[in-house]
Amino acid sequence: MKKIVLIIIVFFLISSFQKKELKKLLGIWTCFHKELKDGTTKSEDFDGNEFTLSCDGVSFKLSKGNNGIEYTHNSKFKYKITKDSILNLGNRKYIIEELTDSILVLRDYSADGLGIYVFRNKYRKTQ
Question: How far apart are CA 111 and CA 114, in angstroms?
Answer without folding.
Answer: 8
